Amino acid sequence: MSSVLQPDFPRLIPFDARRDYVTWARNVENYLAQNDLSDTIVSGSNCSKQEKAQALFYIHLHLNEDFKNEYMLERDPLVIWQSLKDRFDRMKAVELPRAKLDWDCLHFSNFDSVTAYDSALRRIVSQLKLCDKEITDEEMIEKTLSTSPPRGERPSGAHEKSKCQTSPEGVFQKEEKTGSEWEVELSGISSLSPGPVKNYIFWSSVHVRPTYSSVIDFMFAC
Description:
By secondary structure, the chain is mostly helical. It has 2 domains: 72 residues; 128 residues, no CATH class. The chain is built from 12 helices and no strands. α10 packs antiparallel against α11. The longest helix has 17 residues. The N and C termini lie far apart (67 Å). The C terminus is likely disordered. Pfam families: Retrotran_gag_2 (PF14223).
């Protein structure tokens, strides 16, 4: 009795998040590339029926029953590929505003630990990237420094709204952290690039009292 061929990764389902689709598409592309079948999902390419059949079989193997039924009569892998891409790309219209709201509401002072903040920062930045919105190192550092709790105040996770809305300049007026304090606080945030962070720590170590904007400008001038 022959064994049933199992998929190499989870099948795509209609209600998957776009993140799952991106992972699924990358896995399919890798297989097609390894088997010289990449052209089967490229418009205008001249592929043989055998190549299309092989690509079609692999794509169908990694679709759930709902998608298989939907594309049952389609014999061109490119048509299925483009249809799925269009379908999940439309999710960006919903996911991007939600990710932007998460970014706007992200405040270092609202987390109980650096690790928890770093995890949230990574998740939100990744979600924005999936929606074609890149967050730069400068923006991540700006977000972190401008929403950090004042010296001597531990993140409580329950700051009042007014504290979260403190202007960047106001934050630096009441923060007097030393370089070593910032080093401990920022070193645990693996999402931040070490170079710009070290530049900020240099400012603190020489006891310069920069404005918020000058800190950011200095980081990226080096």
